């Protein structure tokens, strides 16, 4: 077929470096930008096939999120704006690693296996972050799409969640919103303004937010959005990309991992601040108190605030809808305890990685999911949305129920349900704090985090560690879980688990306990057990103190 001749010709212009092997990891391919040109071209091909298969628009986002500026990566987006399914991740890995002369064979295998009708039209949306390598890499994606005769639309610079939104809007014929950045700002900002409209005692302090844009795409987009907020939220934007480097000593990942504010930002005591990551699909909040102590409000704190707010509204509205919070093993034990025992909310634990949380959240009427690192959102089932909509329109209900239903409806509209979205999460959190008349300190005291520590251990082959029970228990190597159990017993309120990282060649160790000293000691002892039982390489882990 002429189509395949074109692929062959074009593919030669995007050659694969010899010997390079890459995996479609937890969230796509990610490595040094210099090694990615062929991957991008091939993902353009794959997205075109996926579009033909699903008879819908598919998204391809060029970004390496919180990684350093010199890296890049790519994420594929399925028709409803969710991440691509796992069986297609395998196709992606195969296509990415095929030798130059095998590209056509692998492509044809996928077409056959998926029974793709090649005469079906294809449509692919492409977006990119602010990395200097993103321009040529996204062009390579577009080349891949056109080589297979697909149509494409290049959205240029957008956040990852914005592209997820576009794909969802396009495939639902505009029911989710208009598939433009203007449409995005209009939808989310209008909902925010509706939510905060009757919070009459909102002070100027409450309207003011300090934001660290990680010198990335999120900063650019917040600037663009500002006028839509009509001064109802006044953002002081730091790390807007005009000077500093992307993700360098700033951004959500830096703040969460280092447990300190971004370098170079002046923060007044008590001031409410937040940080986005490099593609604006994560957010964390924080403040420093009058003694200068730093306080982080991570994904667990956000999940708690949001689920409490929603549960109260559902009760006021008299709606019997099942709400649950989905977390991973990294969720602070205090948050789980508070949600289960004080809030009486159902809590589910899944494996690390957004797609796992997203799928479990879909099982409930209202599924709030957050990773501790700040990626999360809320999913409403179709039935839940309909019930809320009906009640909001019902003329025969009392004021209290009606008011709750209207708030719920606007809350649904301020949330990007396709994926965790720093901009939409920020608007949601800001609205909840405004409605509750709550300061960040008050939010912080809902529960107190247990001290915790994360460490990494280098081993010869991290795949020797196999886990179960949502990564909370190690099945192999023999004796490791028993060793962890015995160490945990030595400390109070203690918990520890180990898992092979999905993004780095290390084993991750997590420990929490009643004091920082205990958490540190436990993390170190568990690291030693991993080192000894799972084939550690290099020096033995040293104590932290
Ligand atoms: C990726 C995941 C994130 C997860 C992290 C774990 C997505 C979009 N991102 O960044 O959810 O927390 O990997 O990394 O799924 P690790 O396996 O190295 O601990
Ligand atoms: Mg990200």
UniProtKB/TrEMBL annotation:
Molecular function GO terms recorded: magnesium ion binding; phosphoacetylglucosamine mutase activity
Protein name (database record): Phosphoacetylglucosamine mutase
The organism's taxonomic lineage, starting at the top: Eukaryota, Metazoa, Chordata, Craniata, Vertebrata
Enzyme class of the recorded protein, top EC level: isomerase
Pathway(s): Nucleotide-sugar biosynthesis; UDP-N-acetyl-alpha-D-glucosamine biosynthesis; N-acetyl-alpha-D-glucosamine 1-phosphate from alpha-D-glucosamine 6-phosphate (route I): step 2/2
Biological processes annotated in GO: carbohydrate metabolic process; hemopoiesis; UDP-N-acetylglucosamine biosynthetic process
Gene: PGM3
Cofactor notes: Binds 1 Mg(2+) ion per subunit.
Segments forming domain Phosphoacetylglucosamine mutase AMG1: 179-284, 298-437
Function: Catalyzes the conversion of GlcNAc-6-P into GlcNAc-1-P during the synthesis of uridine diphosphate/UDP-GlcNAc, a sugar nucleotide critical to multiple glycosylation pathways including protein N- and O-glycosylation.
Enzyme Commission number, as recorded: 5.4.2.3
Gene3D superfamilies per UniProt: Alpha-D-Glucose-1,6-Bisphosphate, subunit A, domain 3, Alpha-D-phosphohexomutase, C-terminal domain
């Amino acid at each position: 077929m002429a189509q395949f001749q074109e692929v062959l010709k074009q593919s030669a212009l995007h050659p694969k470096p010899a010997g390079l092997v890459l995996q479609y990891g937890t969230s796509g391919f990610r490595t040094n930008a210099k090694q990615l040109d062929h991957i991008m071209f091939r993902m353009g091909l794959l997205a075109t096939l996926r579009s033909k298969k699903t008879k819908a628009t598919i998204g391809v986002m060029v970004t390496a999120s919180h990684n350093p500026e010199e890296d890049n990566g790519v994420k594929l987006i399925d028709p409803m704006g969710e991440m691509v399914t796992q069986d297609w991740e395998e196709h992606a890995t195969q296509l990415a690693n095929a030798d130059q002369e095998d590209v056509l064979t692998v492509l044809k295998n996928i077409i056959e296996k998926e029974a793709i009708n090649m005469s079906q039209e294809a449509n692919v949306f492409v977006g990119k972050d602010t990395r200097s390598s993103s321009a040529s890499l996204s062009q390579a994606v577009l080349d891949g799409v056109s080589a297979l005769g697909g149509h494409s639309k290049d959205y240029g610079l957008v956040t990852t969640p914005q592209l997820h939104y576009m794909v969802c809007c396009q495939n639902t014929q505009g029911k989710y919103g208009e598939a433009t950045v203007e449409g995005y700002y209009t939808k989310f900002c209008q909902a925010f303004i509706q939510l905060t409209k009757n919070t009459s005692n909102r002070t100027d302090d409450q309207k003011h937010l300090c934001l660290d844009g990680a010198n990335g795409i999120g900063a650019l987009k917040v600037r663009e959005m500002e006028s839509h907020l009509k001064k109802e939220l006044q953002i002081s934007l730091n790390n807007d990309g005009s000077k500093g480097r992307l993700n360098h000593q700033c951004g959500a990942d830096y703040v969460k991992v280092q447990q300190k504010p971004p370098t170079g930002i002046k923060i007044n005591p008590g001031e409410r601040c937040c940080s986005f990551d490099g593609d604006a699909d994560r957010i964390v909040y924080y403040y420093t108190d009058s003694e200068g102590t730093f306080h982080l409000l991570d994904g667990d704190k956000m999940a708690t605030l949001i689920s409490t707010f929603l549960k109260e509204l559902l009760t006021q509205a008299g709606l019997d809808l099942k709400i649950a919070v989905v977390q991973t093993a990294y969720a602070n034990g205090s948050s789980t305890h508070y949600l289960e025992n004080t809030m009486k909310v159902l809590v589910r634990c899944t494996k690390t990685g957004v797609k796992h949380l997203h799928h479990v959240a879909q099982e409930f009427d209202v599924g709030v999911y957050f990773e501790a690192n700040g990626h999360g959102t809320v999913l409403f089932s179709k039935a839940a949305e309909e019930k809320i909509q009906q009640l909001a329109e019902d003329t025969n209900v009392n004021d209290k129920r009606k008011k709750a239903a209207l708030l719920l409806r606007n809350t649904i509209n301020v949330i990007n349900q396709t994926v965790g979205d720093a901009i939409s999460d920020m608007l949601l959190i800001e609205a909840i704090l405004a409605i509750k008349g709550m300061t960040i300190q008050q939010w912080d005291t809902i529960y107190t985090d247990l001290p915790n520590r994360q460490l990494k251990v280098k081993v010869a082959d991290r795949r020797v560690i196999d886990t179960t029970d949502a990564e909370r228990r190690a099945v192999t190597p023999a004796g490791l879980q028993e060793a962890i159990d015995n160490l945990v017993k030595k400390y109070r309120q203690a918990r520890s688990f180990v898992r092979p990282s999905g993004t780095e060649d290390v084993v991750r160790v997590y420990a929490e306990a009643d004091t920082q000293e205990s958490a540190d000691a436990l993390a170190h002892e568990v690291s030693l057990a991993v080192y000894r039982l799972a084939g550690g390489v290099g020096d033995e882990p040293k104590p932290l103190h």
